[in-house]
Amino acid sequence: MGKKAIILKDVSRVYYLGKQKIVALSDIDIEIAEAEFAVIQGPSGAGKSTMLNIIAGLDVPTTGAVTVLGTRVDDSTEDFLSCFRCANIGFVFQQYNLVSTFTAIENIEFPIELNESNTKKAAKLANSLLKEVGLSNRALHFPAQLSGGEQQRLAFARALANDPPILLADEPTGNLDRISERKIIEILNELKDRRKTIVVATHDENILRLADRVFNLVDGRIENAR
Fold it and tell me: How far apart are CA 101 and CA 224, in angstroms?
């Protein structure tokens, strides 16, 4: 096993709705190596999205420590985390989270321009990524003009805009037709070949076949890992 890319140590996440206590994650201990393809599976409400958000520094654990690429993300400032995520973590959200007022190419250019001041370089990279996900002919379309499968592919292109070493994806094929699902599987397989560290929350058996390890999450706890 190679160098550790992601380490969660004694991580718990508790929410309160009024007086009701909701334990989203409880005593999570996992280590994911660089270039490893890990899958988090479990029923709806098991805590999969919460775990991904905590790895990305989008949410903060109630207890425990989260280390990503040697950096503690659970006690860093939001300004630092924004820059850290931009350079190191690509996140494909379940609901795509594309900017509705940006065209497809602008959605990809935006994170590149945050990381690079060279707008010509951003346009070149964005066009290359659109081609990679098969959307060259949709460059000037807005998200609402794209199918669900096209929006998901665009979300992948945006997540890869700065060539991050880590990719997180939350149910990336959950709402897609079979043809679109197959394209997403191809993209994930290619990223695995490129030795990205990949963590996917999914029920998809085709994605599970790509996994080096599978964590089974039930009621906020890792029941077993293989």
Answer: 43
Neighbours of 111 (CB within 10 A): 21
Q: Calculate the alpha carbon distances from 4 to 9, 33, 76, 143, 160 in Å.
A: 13, 4, 19, 36, 21
Amino acid symbol at 93 = F
Q: Could you tell me the CATH number of the domain that includes residue 119?
A: 3.40.50.300
> Of 202, 192, 215, which is closest to residue 35 (Cα–Cα)?
192
| Tally of domains within the chain | 1
- How does pLDDT run across 63-119, given as a tens digit for each residue? 999 999 999 999 999 999 999 999 999 999 988 999 999 999 999 999 988 777 667
State the residue range of the domain holding 107.
34-62+76-225
Query: Measuring CA to CA, which residue among 154, 169, 160 is closest to residue 98?
Result: 154
Provide the whole-model pTM.
Answer: 0.93
Residues in a beta bridge with 33 = 4
Residue 215 resides in a domain: yes
Domain annotation covers residue 142: yes
Within 10 angstroms of residue 27's Cβ, the number of other Cβ atoms is: 15
- Average pLDDT (176-202) is 93
What pLDDT, in 10s, does the model give residues 137-180? 999 999 999 999 999 999 999 999 999 999 999 999 988 888 88
